[in-house]
UniProtKB/TrEMBL annotation:
Protein name: SGNH hydrolase-type esterase domain-containing protein
Gene Ontology MF annotations: hydrolase activity, acting on ester bonds
A Pfam family hit: Lipase_GDSL_2
Domain of life assignment: Bacteria
SGNH hydrolase-type esterase domain boundaries: 14-174
Length: 201
């Protein structure tokens, strides 16, 4: 009897919020996001959207993930990129990723409102709101608002951040894990059903 097929992996890409998730406390690491699938964390600290424009599509095409989780944009804002340019770059990234593998589902994690970004909260919110409108389940996309995880009583919970006010502590990653696990499981099952349906037709 042939061995059952290996489930397609979950791919993480983007900047340090995801990159450092691979090395945080083992109980909250990104490799625990999907127990029945390999998690391939390819995020790179310090990257901005232009860094991913030539590489995200080929990476998705090579890995062919069930789910792509993307966190990128915070460094763009911190380095002065305009909302319009950032949104244009994100649109290209979304299109390239989805075109690279027809069964990949995309989840975009919202740009996090950290103390470091306080001068651009208005722009940050505008980016998140525009992306939330842009990404629709019917287009194999989803928007995950991470900001409620980092706020208590409407105020930023600084105890979840490292001393630099940007990067996350293990307990913050534990919250992200609990938030994203069910979203990934749900969209991965939709992908599997779509492939199964195509094969049975």
């Amino acid at each position: 009897m042939p061995a059952p097929p290996v489930p397609a992996p979950v791919l993480l890409a983007g900047s340090s919020i995801f990159a450092e998730w691979a090395t945080t406390d083992p109980a909250a690491r990104s490799d625990r996001l999907c127990p029945d699938r390999r998690v391939d964390n390819q995020a790179v600290c310090g990257t901005q959207t232009p860094d991913w424009l030539p590489t995200l599509g080929p990476l998705v095409g090579a890995v062919r993930p069930a789910v792509l989780c993307l966190y990128v944009g915070s460094n763009d804002l911190a380095n002065g990129r305009s909302v319009g340019r950032l949104l244009s770059n994100l649109d290209r990234l979304f299109d390239d990723a989805l075109a690279a593998c027809p069964h990949t589902r995309l989840l975009y994690g919202s740009v996090i409102r950290s103390a470091h970004q306080s001068a651009r909260f208005g722009d940050l919110d505008a980016v998140n709101e525009a992306v939330a409108r842009r990404l629709r389940p019917a287009d194999r996309c989803g928007f995950v608002d991470l900001n409620p995880l980092f706020h208590a009583g409407g105020r930023l919970d600084g105890s979840l951040f490292q001393d630099d006010g940007v990067h996350l502590l293990p307990r913050a990653y534990a919250r992200m894990l609990a938030c994203l696990q069910p979203r990934i499981a749900a969209v991965a099952s939709v992908r599997s059903a779509a492939i199964g349906g195509r094969g049975s037709g």
